[in-house]
Known about the structure:
The protein is about 45% helix and about 20% strand. By secondary structure, it is α/β, with parallel strands linked by helices. The protein has two domains: about 90 residues, no CATH class; about 100 residues, no CATH class. The strands form four sheets. It has a four-stranded mixed sheet with strand order 2-4-6-5, covered by helices on one side. The protein has a two-stranded parallel ribbon with strand order 1-3. A two-stranded antiparallel ribbon has the order 7-8. It is elongated.
Amino acid sequence: MKLIGTHQLLAYADDVNILGGSIHTLKENAESLVAATREIGLEVSSDKTKYTIMYRDQNAGRIHSVRIDNSTFERVAGFKYLGTTLTNQNSIVEEIKNRLKSGNACYHSVQIFLSFRLLSKNLKMKIYRTIILPVVLDGCETWSLTLREERKLSMFENRVLRRIFGPRRDEVTGKWGKLHNEELNDLYSSPNIVRVIK
């Protein structure tokens, strides 16, 4: 007999029904899933199967686990599904944090090319737009940004752009200094990361 894990697919919400709009419907659908997998010789792994409740009122739905036959499915606050972090509060803060973490890893892997003086700024911009930006913006179609998230995303983009455009030299003092945000906006001809998301 093989084991199959639904990898935390048991989830339901007020507005979006994944497996049910109530705990009763969730149990019925989970029982149907377990029965259907048994018919073809598979077994749902209770260790790998979790569920979450996405309510506006977090005090609703106090049941902490769903028991079906000999299996118990644990209730969790959030989980990763198809690369996206789903939480019981339907918050995108964790998702953006994870996307920026992945974007930073990608940025650090190509950082040497962004600093390389023999590469043109246009080529460096193409590296940013084709390698780094898609990693950060994966799944952004579902985000509803707050000002705090917009600031975090802008800070990330400005850091990458500072690496691409390099420091600027003050004509009066002759000292080198980092570019200010307004100067970066002038140099970067494409829409900024927040406008791309919106």
